[in-house]
Amino acid sequence: MTTTQYRNFVAVAECRSITGAAKELLIAQPALTNQIKRMEEEVGVPLFIRYPRSVELTDAGKVFYRSARSILQIEENMGIEISNLSNGDAATLRLGISLFMPDPSFRKILLDHYRRYPDVMISLHEKNTDQILEELESGIVELAAVSSPKRLPPKFRIVATLNSHLYACHTPDSPFLADKAPGEPVDLSELEGIPLSAPRSLYRYIEEFCNGVGFVPLIKAISDSRHATFQLAECGNMVAILAIYADAMESNGMIYHPIRGEDMNNQRYFAMLQGRTLSTAAQNFVETLKSQKFYTSANP
User: Fold this and answer.
1) Which segments within 192-248 are labelled E, that is strand?
2) Pairing of strands 239-244, 196-199
3) Is the pTM of the predicted complex or chain greater than 0.85?
C-alpha cells in the first residue's frame, strides 16, 4: 500500500464518514469508497463498520489505524530531517516525554543541551508512558523519557536513569500532615484517610503500595501531568503524591515529606529501542545526558 492510501484511510477514520473525508481530501466519494474496499480485500478483514451516514473502525481497523498513523508520522519526520539537511539547518531531535512537566531536572538538561548545540531543533511529544513507549517502538520518536517504579521491557534499551523518591506534598496551611515538620519523613500508613492527588503514571502503584500495608488510598484526583497534580494540591484540600529528585526540589511554597520505604523509590528512564541506530541529534542528546551528575548513564 502507498502512503496516499494510508493517508486516505486515516482521513476516513477521523472523519467517521467516507463522504466527509472525500470532501476534505478533494477526491470523488465513489473513488474513495472503492479504495477502502480494495484495502479491506488486501488485508482480508473489514476495517470499518458501515452505517447509513457514518462509519466506525472495527477492532482490526483500530490496529490498522494506529499503524497507518505511525507510518505517516515516520514519513513526515523523514521529510523534516531531509529538509533540514538540504537547507543547512540543524537536525531535529524527536523526544518523547511522559507528562511530568514542569520538572527542574529536565529543565537543566534542556538548558545544558541548548548551550552545547544552540542550533538544535527539538520536537517534544508529551503523552502518558504507555503512549510514549508505543511511539518509541513505532519510530515516531527516537528517545523517550518515562517515569516508572518498574524496569522497562527488554525491547527498550535504557541509556540513562534518574533515581527519585515518592514525596507527599501539601500547602503550608493544609489541614493534613499538620503535625509534621517540613521535610520530615512520613509512613505510608499516615496517608490513610487523606484525600490524595496523583499523576496517572503512578496512581496504580500508589494503590498497590497502600493495599500492601492494609488500606485503600483515598485518591480524589488523577491527572496526566505533574503540573496539574501540584495545582490540585495547591488548593489545600488534598495532598499530592509525586516522584521527586531531592536536589531538584522546587521552591514553590509547598511542604515536602519523603515517604519512608525502599519501595517508594522511583526511576525515570531515558530509553531507545533495542537495535535502532540513533540520528546524530539523538546521539548528541545522549552525550548531554551522560554529562549530568544526577543521572546514571547505562552501558553503551
Assistant:
1) 196-199, 219-223, 239-244
2) parallel
3) no
